[in-house]
Amino acid sequence: MPASPPPPSYPAPKLLSTPDELSGSAAAEFRFATEGCSDNLSDCMYICSLESGPPFDCESPLVLKRLQEGQHSFSVYTDAKADVAASSIVEHFWVVDTVGPSLSLSQRGPPTYLPTKLTLEMVVVASEPLSVPLAADRVVAVNASCESVKELTSTSFLVTLRIDPVWPEPT
């Protein structure tokens, strides 16, 4: 007697909306859907898990709150309420980082005086890699403009400032 075919299964859910890989929020929203699974979930249901923890019934959208700093994982699959096999699992990984890096500044050598300008080099050191690169157009200084930013390491930068004169020009 031939073996009976396996029961049909739903396709894996599609993640329609997820948090960014690096998120500055302690909350995360997930939206997902499965082809062939009705919107009112009369024929199927979603099973979710956070950090490989115990599975729980869930619906889309799913909002997770009060997430701790650090790496997180979320998984979801579609299960049937009838004779249909469960789908494969879909996963998403992201990092919650709600505390920005601290920066320290130190002067690199004496200022350079030229007849037409005064420049100063500063080393900026961040406590962690920056999610957005430090660029000259993002440096704001009082009585100075940023001429250049050179990345020394993933957490340190050489910033060259042109000091604006605050004294009267000689006549």
Summarize the structure.
The chain is mostly beta strands and 171 residues long. The chain has strands at 14-17, 22-23, 28-33, 44-50, 56-58, 62-64, 70-80, 90-96, 103-107, 112-113, 118-126, 144-153, 156-163. A 5-stranded mixed beta sheet has the order 2-8-7-4-5, with no helix packed on it.
Distance between the termini: 108 Å
User: So how many helices?
Assistant: 0
Low-confidence stretches: none
Assembly category: single chain
Overall morphology: rod-shaped
Largest sheet: 5 strands, mixed
Computed structural class: mainly beta
Strand order of the biggest β-sheet: 2-8-7-4-5
Description:
By secondary structure, this protein is an all-beta fold. It is built from no helices and 13 strands. Strands 2-8-7-4-5 form a 5-stranded mixed beta sheet, with no helix packed on it. Strands 9, 10, 11, 12 and 13 form a 5-stranded antiparallel beta sheet that branches. Strands 1-3-6 form a 3-stranded antiparallel beta sheet, with no helix packed on it. A hairpin with a 2-residue loop joins β12 (144-153) and β13. The mean pLDDT is 84.
List the helices and strands and how they pair.
Layout: E1 14-17, E2 22-23, E3 28-33, E4 44-50, E5 56-58, E6 62-64, E7 70-80, E8 90-96, E9 103-107, E10 112-113, E11 118-126, E12 144-153, E13 156-163
Parallel strand pairs: 2-8
Antiparallel strand pairs: 1-3, 3-6, 4-5, 4-7, 7-8, 9-11, 10-11, 11-13, 12-13
